[in-house]
Specification:
The protein is an alpha/beta fold and about 325 residues long. The protein is built from 9 helices and 13 strands. It is about 25% helix and about 20% strand. β7 and β8 form a beta hairpin. It starts with a helix and ends in an 8-residue tail after the last strand.
Length: about 325
Amino acid sequence: MISRRDLLKLTGVAGVGSTALSGYALAEAFRERVTSYTLTPPNWTPGLKLKFAVLADLHVCEPWMSVERLEVIVEQTNKLDVDAILLLGDYVVGHRLGKYSGRVSNGAWATVLGRLKAPLGVHAVLGNHDWWESRDVQKKRAGPTPAGLALQVVGIPVYENNAVRLEKDGRAFWLAGLGDQWAFWPRNDEYDEFVQGGKVAYHGVDDLPATLRQVTDNAPVILMAHEPDIFPKVYERVSLTIAGHTHGGQVRIFGYAPIVPSRFGSRYAYGHIVEDKRHMIVSGGLGCSSLPIRFGSPPEIVVIELGGSEGGEV
């Protein structure tokens, strides 16, 4: 995936190359794994078996998540024999990591993602960094975003409070995509409170009621969302919510993530979460933000098999 020379360069840039522990944390950021979940969620149609691959939080940039590395991830994903591929946002590099990295054009990474193939298609939502990338978008407080347009150019539909009805073996299900919940930075009159009080005061383009009003029958619903924070508001009608954004905390020490970008702290940091009989799976993602370091939270491609026996991470 990455040469010894590149790894040494990364270590020097991050300023943490003097210890074996920090060197491991850098190296772990480049070791993708496949994490699998098998479950039959509520409101599920008997006999309907679906297999999804989930790619979240790529944060494409040079050299941490290069086009070459992305090509390997796409090739690996295409070999997983899934029914559909779900892309959960944050395709572009974060602003903090951008200080230490080289930008990759939207056209370049989107072209690689355009090579993803699955019988029931590739489906995408946008993440907060895809909205934050453009000063014009932030100034207008409206899309379209450059990342969203790039995905559409290569034929990948981008969901923003939309739902589509799909079928497998004559059995229907709904795939819904929520607009991003952290699309816009706080307004000027909110910014001081945001910085000094540490509040999450972002404004979203999400509209869960409007999204689910498009569901017109009793077929099960799979909800794609970038941030998991929507989960307490998700109706029981939704069989499974799938989210990213948190990177699993990106750094986890003995299973604990000290920093999780969520209004709920570590409550929705990672994994298969069940609350009030509602199910959500939160991916640890593939890229990095702030610094190219992962510790105790390796990058992952997530595979979800629905309609099988109850289970968890494999």
